[in-house]
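Ticket 4471: requesting a sanity check on a complex prediction with tryptophan. Repro inputs:
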Amino acid sequence: MSRIFSGIQPSGELHIGNYLGAVKNWVALQSTHPGALFCIVDYHAITGNYDPAVLRSRRWEMAKSLLATGIDPALCALFQQSDIPEHTELAWVFTTLTPLGDLERQTQFKEKSSKHESIPAGILMYPVLQSADILLYRADLVPVGEDQIQHLELARDTARKWNARFEHAFFPEPKPLLTPTRRIMGLDGQSKMSKSLGNTIGLLESDDDIWAKLRPAMTDPQRVRRTDPGRPEVCNIYSLHQAFNPPDVVENVAVQCRSAGWGCVDCKKVLLEGMVRELTPIRHRAVLLDADPQRVLDALADGARTARAIAQETMRDVRARMGLDALVAPTPKSALA
Ligand code: AMP
Ligand code: TRP
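Returned structure tokens:
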């Protein structure tokens, strides 16, 4: 049976890009893949300047939001990376096997490092820690959005290198599991929806706040007047319809757009309805968790217990195969004679 592992940074609110690209899939997979592990990767979220109090509150919000989407601690392990020190231990092991050039070639490194004058080495090492996250649990399937494909290639290379040196087939070569909504664009319609670009819709935002963001959102640039026919295939709002509305509604949206039967605002109102339908139960569960925060703490403690047992066993095996296990006194020469 395949083992599922995935992670998310507590670097801001959970948004619909995270949800459609990854987290909705986690909720589905926890039922079909017993023993799945989902990790709030807080050590990944400290590579830039940050405020410790803000990080603390974001870790909390992320745990609560994930439980609100339907992540169920009875079916999977939800835990925090910083609760399991073996993540950073295995990351060090992997830095010794990773060519510097492979890290410098990562798209995310190139993007993030261009924003720094003095580049923290943590930004370069980020995918090494990610490989450790996954391989620590010897996971072979990783449900993520499209932007993580390159990092997973590196994780496979690392698994292959370690196996070749220390034990054949010890680590599986983890593969990404993508959804049809693997890359959700931001409301500007220009770039990926991303916390760092401020173009997101948060999963727990109110109907009014979502509408305030949807109303001015980018559509087909050729639809200048209400009577201009639109092209659903180039419109970001249409792709969100595909994610939030049933096929018959999506089909009607395309017809109304092409024939200019609806204006873009009409079309956005129908999208809002679909979003509210899906997001209302999630918001409701978040309110219940706010009233009972112990459930969040209990879920994380349970998750950490499960994760720790696997992580410790893997590291015991890794250390032994690398010559780093407990020393035993050498047999005295006289006893050999
Ligand atoms: P992050 O917020 O960067 O930790 O990402 C958490 C998960 O959400 C990862 O699996 C990402 O690939 C996925 N993700 C983030 N942004 C998007 C997006 N705009 N579209 C689809 N998936 C995304
Ligand atoms: N790098 C991932 C992101 O930005 C987060 C992450 C860290 C992750 N470790 C992971 C995702 C392990 C999957 C598996 O989205």
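Notes from triage: Residues 5-9, 41, 44, 130, 133-134, 142, 144, 148, 151 surround tryptophan (ligand 2) (CB under 6 Å). Leaving this open until the requester confirms.
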